[in-house]
Amino acid sequence: MRSSLFLLGVSLSAMSCAYGNVAMLSDSGAPSNPLGSSPYATINAALNAAATGGTAGVPLTTTPVLTLTGDDTAETTENTLPSTITSLTINGGGHTIPRQTGAGNFTLLRLSGTLDIYPSNVTFSNFSNNSTLGAIVGGVGVNLNHSSISGDTTSNVIFSGNNSLVGGVYGTQGVVSFTNTNLVTLTSNSADAGGAISCNGLTLSGTRLVTFSNNSAGDGGAIWSRSDVDISGPTAFTNNTARRWGGAVFMANPDFATYLSYNVTNPVTLNPQYSTPALATAANVGGDNDIAAAISAAMFIKAGTGTLTLNTVNVNWLGNTTVNAGSLIIGDSSHTSAQWGPNPSASPSQGTPGTITVNGGTLGGYGQIHASAVTFGAGSTWQVGFDSAHPTVARLNVTGALSLDPRTIIDATQVTLTPGTNYTMATYGTLIGSLSAVNILQHNPSSSLSLSQTGSGPYTLSLTLTAVPPIPAVPTILTAGSDGTNHTSLHGALTTTASTTPSLTFTTAADTVEATSTNLSSFTGGVSITGAAGGTTIIPATGFTGSLLTTSGSNALLLKPSNLTFSGFSSTDSNFPGSVISCANALTINPTNQVTFTGNSSSVSTAYAGAISAGQVTITGTKPMAFTGNTSSNGGKGGAAISSSGAVQISSPVTFTENSVMGSANGGAIYSLGQVEISEPATFKGNSSVNRGGAIYAPAVGLTDTQFANNTATTSGGAVYTTGNFTYNVTKAVTLNPQYSTSTAATAASVGGDNDIACQGGGSMFTVNAAVGKTGTLTLNTVNANWLGGTTVNAGGLIIGDSSNPSAQWGSAVNRGAINVGSTTGAVTGGTLGGYGTIYATSVNFVPQTGTQSTWLIGINPTGTTPPCGVLNMTGQLTLPSNIEMMDLWHQLFQLVVLTLWRQGILTIY
């Protein structure tokens, strides 16, 4: 079996030749020097000359270069390349190599030894071969083993209209790899198995787009594989069809487990070519650009931070599914008949679906998902979509257990619901976890969403929207459980009760009569306020300005809210600057069900002005809270959601969305003069400050698995700004992406705070994974040009820029500190530092380890990219231990650089 390497895109200069002879032959060592009787009429003739054209049959060259000066239209027979030829370059110059009109079926090239092929800027079209696997496979390709395709950014390669029994373009019994940095198009190819590619394993990891379009086959319209498929480079599937299974991809091995990994950074969508039926069945749905697997042991893995939307009917995916990152969406709002997995309840049954596990990513959509078991892990999101024409048809159908971690988020922000309608979210056999523990994000904060379970196994889970009614003509009635007396307002109940631990329950969905502040200083045992069954929204009475709930003096306050939304309050009083809560001392909030603060505002220029203002804030428990659209203006201390003169500690799931501060205020969501400590996964999205700290401003910050998206600050610190130290603990992986495109040469003067991390001075320290057991990777794709302090990577990794964000930056030419990688205090650990971006430092010390390694990870960027690779830019010492692991693609060059630094006395190696 012959082994081949395809390197697409090697650019060579075109050569002139006589009319009709279009194939110039040369050697790779001297591509501009013609050999033999160049030019030749066909590449077949040129290759025969290369192999036998020398004296006594000696080859003219073992590494021929073919340069086309026109279309090669005279190919009539296949060419069997002898084993003496070890590489072949075809520089197409934009020309086409078609099968000659009227010629019989044949493959262009048959390989008989080890060969590397470098096609560039060329189109192969209309070749055909109907031989069986093992002889000549594919209209253009042959029986290849462990082949790869790569190339440069300037020369594109097209395979069009080729046909074969197996693999219309590229039939092989081995593994195929595309590492292309040029555009590759495989279009209108056909075969019985694998219209474009038939292989025993496939990797698509290039940096430029590979397009599969209008390919067709019996199985695997675009790709047919008997082993693992890894898709991590830009890949598009359009209008590929199969008569049976897998219009886009078919995992064909019926004997052992294989996986299909789809890594998405930017949004990718697979659409069907034809309209899909409303309720698909195995009998009437063929392979329309879908994904399919032959056995239940197969695994589909969604990786990467981007969104993969499958608008296709993937009824023949019989395997399991894992969502490790980003989003897997089955059907957008225009494709409610999209499907993932077979429906066992269809008539006839479509088969038995596999399991689905969501590990911190997002699963959902408007289509139907079928599984034998579904698990939403910590920090995972269930994105709700509904078919408005069939609101009682479940989107998620589980024959076994539905498991919900208490930190699961149900995202209903993408759907518009009709009040009073029960929307069926899921059917399932058993429920593991509690429905009341999950965090529901809703489209309209002035409405209430509730979950309900019916049946006795299988169960039905429904989501119901309750709209906030108009302002009632009669006062709101509220029951004070501590004295059994009904009251007409929250203020009335709290000011008349004799209990020191009052417990209040609303009986209506809205309270619109609160016209004065209520002081809670006397309630030493805490206050419990519970909304009605469908939730209660508390809105200020017309004309009321001031804090709803206050304390004075040194008394601390314990508040236990449940099923409540606080909306539309505002304060201009510097004594009570919190629009909803003003607590002079410590405030502890322990929600017993969903609590939301939305659309509140404070405009106090000299105080801690936010929805909550307190001397210290603690949010604890397992129930979710949300702060949405709160504002703080006229300067002040900032923190539109939480503003505190002391510490802020959060140990429950909290989301902060689109909170903002204006004027000279800092901290779009949180402003604190003490330490901000968040020990449970929290989410900050779309928060902003016109000064510093788009999400958080504090003198010290400690976070665990906190997510940041689209937070901005006009000056610096779109995600976090600290005047002291910052510790970021990561369990698995956290990525911070910029909202806008980053500049290629960012400086502290030109880059504002786009979801970045910043500090006030060089004395600050940024520490990755200080907590024991935290070994995850923090990836910063942002330009952190205003981090002035030092950095320590105790364990796990700090990656500055992934492959799609080479302009990411840590520090700057004028703002930089020392970096230590690894720890020798406590448990000895090894850390990882590197990436595709630029890291500025005064010095970098990879701490010597015992029994473990520190890692320097160097990303190599595409040609022409700035920087060309991940860069450590230091003004001082680089210190490496002898056992450091250096992961890069240019290792020999790297060793020369290290040796040079060592000889100059800049580098120390232990």
> Could you tell me the number of beta strands?
96
Rg is 32 Å
Q: How much helix is in the residues?
A: under 10%
Low-confidence blocks of residues: 1-19, 132-154, 277-284, 467-477, 742-750, 889-893, 895-910
The best one-word shape is globular
Largest sheet: 27 strands, mixed
Task: Report the mean per-residue pLDDT as an integer.
Answer: 80
How much of the sequence is in beta strands?
A: 35-45%
Instruction: Report the end-to-end length measured between terminal Cα atoms.
Output: 47 Å
Report the structural category.
mainly beta
**Number of helices in the DSSP assignment:** 3
Keywords: Cell outer membrane, Membrane, Secreted, Signal
Main location: other
Organism: Candidatus Finniella inopinata
InterPro entries: Pectin_lyase_fold/virulence (IPR011050), POMP_repeat (IPR003368)
